Amino acid sequence: MRLSFWHLLSVMLLVLLLTWGPPAVADQPVPPDQGQVTLPLETFLELTRKPKPSSTGSTGSTVPLPFLFSRGHYRIQARPSWAQVQGTLDLQVYQPGWVEIPLLPADVVLEEARLDGSSLALYRKDGKFFLPVDRPGSYKLQATWNLPVQLSGATRSVILKTPVSSVSGFLLVVPDRDLEIKTSPALPLTRQDEKTRTLARGAIPGGGAGEVCFSWTPRRADPALRGKANREKPRLSTRMYDLVTVSETEVHCQVRLDMEILRNEVDRFTLRLPLGVEIEEVACANLAGWSESIQAGHKDLLIRLAAPVSGNHTLNLVLVQPLEKADSTWKLPALEVVGAETVKGSIGLGATGGLEIQPGKLEGVRAIDVSELPSEIRDLASFALLRAYEFQRQPWSIQLTSRKGQEVPVLSAAVDEASGLTLVTRDGKLVTSWTWKIRNNLKQSLNIRLPEGATILTTTLDGHPTRPVQGAEGEIRLPLVASGQEGKTTFPVELTYVQEPGVSAWLSRQRLQAPQVDMPCSVLNWTLYLPLDEWIWHVGSNMRPGLIHEPVGGEIRSSSAAGPMAPGAGLARSKALRQEVSQDEVLHSGQVSDMVQQASRGTLPVKLNIPARGQSLQFSRLVVTDQEVPEIFLHYASPLLKILGGLLVLGLTLGQGWPQMRRERGLEPLLAAIVGLWVIRGWASGVLLELVLLWASRGLYLLVACWLYRNRSWLLSRLRGQGGEA
């Protein structure tokens, strides 16, 4: 009974545990896109372990470069038309997956390519051959291709293009002996002469792909190297061009030496000079350096080259020999080329500073005409050549004598054209502006002596404001600049000033003076603008009178626009012209005072435009020296005085002609007098005479009118055809 109870209790507990427990693994649902994998604990921990960071902070998951050629070697077998290249390269591939590796230019003739001994196929892309590799690792690449051999004279050359590699070497095999082998760029070479061929070994700079040109020349075919194999002495020929410039203190020689080196190479040149000659410059291709050494009675100049040269080579030198006195006798620096078998030289000589060069004793040299000098000397000379010499052996000697004469002062600055504009106001004030177009080589300032009582308003130099300076003697100094193109261009200098001479109300005389400058002037033009209501009855000047015409809207009419007129001609004006002057065309006293105050404040001056309105008088003069002062004299009279004078002439004319008016035949003398006045007015000159003739003509016109009125009956009867006496 007791056993049954415990059995029953055990069965119930087992059922309860089976009901509440988790479902079996086989009973759990599994998603269709997932699965379960059972791994050992060690494998699970290895997969979940995080990598340690490196010292640079990178985890090492990225590859710094996909591939690298660590080493390369090229064997170049030269043939007459082609060169076969056998290249062996060590290739390291780091990037997984397919990698494109560029190898050679697509224009080479490829024979074979192997990777680790197995043949492979290369493909073309972007003008190159590419090698495809699909996995990382170390490989050995072997390729054979052909390159064309270029022929230039006796020299053959081939251009080798290599892939990028760290270290590369080459072996050049040429089936010939006694060769001169060169590379471009220059590379260190180790050559070996065998029985039937020549070997050349060297290294190609690593770190970059480039072109290396190999060239080889048989020494027996090159005249410059023909004797090198037999260790013959080089043969040196020289052509010298010497341009000599003699000044008061030195003899300057610009020398060019064209060398021709045959049968061997040279790496230095030796030149012989007199002891007193200084070497300023040495220049040539492949120059390593130069040095001087003092020998017995001469100086040797040793010129060293960085590499041996043959064929043609050019040296350029600048030599200087000091002169103690300009008036002395001396020898031209004689340059000798030590070891030269043949020498030919040409010498062109010129002088500066007014030196006179006279030839002296000549040894080994003959004088020639300057026109016979070669172009190499004449093209270098920027001055006239005085003497020319030629020699064909060395040593040679030229003795010369220099004499310096006394220098004559010449003109360093001049005025091409001076243009003046003067405006005379109603109250007698004068505002004048002058512009000088100057050519200048040396002069620092323009010295100007202004008329008495002048006050400066503005000054400009080449369109820019400038400050004038007053000299010790009262002259005004304006700074100048140098003319461009060796004095062939001009620049303007402008000056504006005001004067207050004052004019009387009835009759006066005014004197106008141009500023006096300290340089000659080729052409001087002066234009005056006077008030329209002023009567100028006489004009005098030491200049040639130009036109006096009516206002033309501010434009100065040139004298060539009309025929010549005497001073004062054409002053008769209509009423409309008298009223043309407006308020803004005349400078009043207040305006002049304001301008003077502004000019005295010390501020930078500005340009003042002068109105060109009123009666215009023009004067001109050719070639004005620095000692001459152009002047103009104006004789004024008031308009009232002009009218009174005209009325006086009118009255005198009426008084003299009144008896003729009362006579029966008085018309004929009156008409004859009018015709005579017309003739005189056509030839008359002078404002005063013209005024007298004008009012006399008016008086005669009145007398004729009165005679006709008095004899009107007779005149009407004659017109009606009745006749009769008046």
- The number of distinct helices, counting runs of at least 4 residues, comes to 10
Largest sheet: 9 strands, mixed
User: How much helix is in the residues?
Assistant: 10-25%
**Count of domain modules:** 4
Low-confidence segments: 22-33, 52-60, 547-593, 595-602
Oligomer: single chain
What is the CATH-assigned architecture of the largest domain? Sandwich
Shape: elongated
**CATH H-tier superfamily of the largest domain:** tricorn interacting facor f3 domain
Query: Which structural class best describes the helix and strand composition?
Result: alpha+beta
Mind explaining what this structure looks like?
With 726 residues, this protein is of the alpha+beta class. It has 4 domains: 67-221, Sandwich (Immunoglobulin-like), CATH 2.60.40; 235-404, Mu homology domain, subdomain B (Immunoglobulin-like, Sandwich), CATH 2.60.40.1170; 413-550 and 596-637, Immunoglobulin-like, CATH 2.60.40.1730; 639-717. The chain is 17% helix and 45% strand. It has 10 helices and 42 strands. The strands form 8 sheets. Strands 16, 17, 18, 19, 20, 22, 23, 25 and 26 form a 9-stranded mixed beta sheet that branches. An 8-stranded mixed beta sheet has the order 5-4-8-2-1-11-14-13, with no helix packed on it. An 8-stranded mixed beta sheet has the order 32-31-35-29-28-38-41-40. Helix 8 (667-683) packs antiparallel against helix 9 (687-710). The radius of gyration is 55 Å and the shape is elongated. The termini are far apart. The relative contact order is 0.06. Residues 22-33, 52-60, 547-593 and 595-602 have low confidence and may be disordered.
